[in-house]
Specification:
The protein is mostly beta strands. It contains no helices and eleven strands.
Length: about 120
Amino acid sequence: QVQLVESGGGLVQAGGSLRLSCAASGRTLSNYAMGWFRQPPGKEREFVAAISWSGGTAKYADSVQGRFTISRDSAKNTVYLQMNSLKPEDTAVYYCAASVRVQGPYNYWGQGTQVTVSS
């Protein structure tokens, strides 16, 4: 069983940056692909980014390509999402998740962290 805890969310002005962290316990993340998802207010959860277990492959939603970067630190058992040039439409609850494959399905989920971008 993998337990995931997100942190780093908050309120930021448009154009600003935040870095989200996802710390794991219970098992090492080294064997898992990791993903970030988000759920905007009143909308369904959507894919944001994913990274393979080796870190060699990363995928992004078109809406965040070039602005967000996913990375992982195996020694710290942590995955990050660096978010730059934030826009109000990035406002959402952000979740990290673990899967045996980058394409999913994602079986383990964190509780989420709120990101609010003001205009």
